[in-house]
Amino acid sequence: MEVIKIIGTDDTPNVILDADNNIFEISGRSLPEDVTSFYEPILDWLDDYAEETNKKTIFDFKLVYFNTASSKLILDILLKLEEMYEAGKDVLVRWHFPDDDEDMEEAGEEYADIVEVPFEQVGYSLD
Amino acid sequence: MDDNKTDIKDFLAFAYSFYKTVKEYKINLVYEGEITHQIIKAFTSLTETNMEIDEESTSIQKKVFHVMVESLQNISKHADCLPTENQRKEGKGVFMLGKNGDTYCITSGNVISSTKVPEIKNQLIKINSLDKDGLKTLYKQQIREGRLTQKGGAGLGFIDIAKKTGNKLDFSFLSIDDEFSFFVLTSTISKNI
Q1: Fold of B28-190
Q2: Cβ of B99 under 8 Å from any chain A Cβ?
Q3: How is domain A4-124 classified at the CATH fold level?
Q4: Treating both helix axes as pointing N-terminal to C-terminal, what angle do B157-165 and B132-145 enclose, rounded to 10 degrees?
Q5: N or C: which end of chain A has fewer CB within 10 A?
Q6: What are the pLDDT digits (tens) for B79-137?
């Protein structure tokens, strides 16, 4: 499958979607000028990937900031992962948050409440 | 000619009184005009630099960043324009960032069509009536049910500001004429939350 690799900037996240190497990751900051066009290829990629998934899919979110417009698109990604899980695939979402960032931890909890997919919260230290 | 001189004198006096007012209200940043993505990036980055110099905690820095982005995007996505303006342009407004002691104040003001007032007002009253858990529930409901508008609005901005600041939203709608109102929103971020 084609690999998506987007280098992050101060307003768009780093994205790696690489099925061959089993890396599925979105990290950094997300407040793109046009959220829909930024996330569209990612959602399309996931649709293709859902046709032929790996044995296990671990999707890592390691965001430090996202605006409310992005939060809606992040939910769309999670809903695609939920679909895969409901179709019997082995899927795990890992939500990484800085240890001292309660808001980011809470955002993970809220997503975990909304989507029916195995969800793991992982705190990390910035030091 | 004499009139012109008086005008200039008045204007120079205005510049000084404006400066004094800005100082009096402890405003660090004031802007009037179109809010573009570039403006949002410039203002947030400038404020981040200032907060780092002031050695603000990461938590406060992140909250101020969040509220600034949502307030600025509210203007850029929802501000209407007056038909009398020479250049019809939406997405314009006033933005102010103030810091008084331990409290950051973020204010946005923009023209909206008066027909939108009741809906916005009700939404703000509802948000202000909720506690932390209530806001969480409302957020989860809106993110699930809401749809992104053409301009990329998720209908989550006010709820997010209330959640992140833990404070009530201060707002007012001032009537411009029969058709239009001026909507002012102030969010407060206090250090001891």
Answers
A1: Heat Shock Protein 90 (3.30.565)
A2: no
A3: Transcription Regulator spoIIAA (3.30.750)
A4: 150
A5: C
A6: 888 877 666 677 899 999 999 888 999 999 999 999 999 999 999 999 999 999 999 99
